[in-house]
């Protein structure tokens, strides 16, 4: 079946509540919803998600203007050939990996619907039935962070991820108070989002945090400080999880060769799609490294794509992933709910991504 049309609809998705990390505060997300149709009228859905620089709307425009026509007439199932073409169009631009991911996801959704198979079956089949998810704690007042931690534990999350990096003393206080307020078996992770300036500062903070039970430290230093990250990995007790350092397979290769990571945080978006993300998992496996899944935060279409990958990948870490971006949004463009219960995300066995577009809602959330 051939591609008849490719359209990206720019949408603005409102958050329930503004969320802060060391890079900024977010009250809405500007994403793009990719719709690829065949001549029979069947469609596949993808999402272009970008947290920074005002979101993905400029990328949506570029795809509609410069990419869409080039895809029309191609066989839907020729993912490798289409991927190669998109790689040529994405040369020198990490931003366009996000566009490639949105398009490739829509193709997988379409192929799933055509074959009546869930996408994880197209990626190698089921390695697990559910994905452990982190409970999120954003930067806020100390009282609010402790309250949120208790709330997340009561919701069933087994692992909490605390954003840090704006105020070292306050971060340490927050971790101490959270640790004292929740049961011991609940694991703590921090995400500095590159905020710490030197390996000396990072080591001091990691050592103190480890004493309060922080077992994973996500992206303590800037993305390109691989020598320093490798040193931290060798000289601290916590596991080093790299996020901003890893977009695509080339980044992952550099991190793995440098021995800079205990775990890699993989995004379908940043890797240029499901195949790009799968390649990172497979490369990491050669180094005996497990991966977790990140969140841009994608809404339900993008989150479903990440979840489908997570169900399939053998070396998805037993430590929790972040496939919970969709929980941030007050409104979304699909009919189906995604459910996190007792700290785990499960997805349906329905064809494709398992979500279908609510075109009324899409119209409502679309922006010019
Ligand atoms: Mg992160």
UniProtKB/TrEMBL annotation:
A Pfam family hit: MR_MLE_N
SUPFAM superfamilies (UniProt xref): Enolase C-terminal domain-like (SSF51604), Enolase N-terminal domain-like (SSF54826)
Span of domain Mandelate racemase/muconate lactonizing enzyme C-terminal: 142-239
Statement: the UniProt record of this protein carries the keyword Metal-binding: yes
Gene3D superfamilies in the cross-refs: Enolase-like C-terminal domain (3.20.20.120), Enolase-like, N-terminal domain (3.30.390.10)
A GO molecular-function annotation: metal ion binding
A biological-process GO annotation: amino acid catabolic process
Cited SMART domains: MR_MLE (SM00922)
Keyword line: Metal-binding
Family designation: Belongs to the mandelate racemase/muconate lactonizing enzyme family.
Protein name: Mandelate racemase/muconate lactonizing enzyme C-terminal domain-containing protein
Organism, as annotated: Paenibacillus contaminans
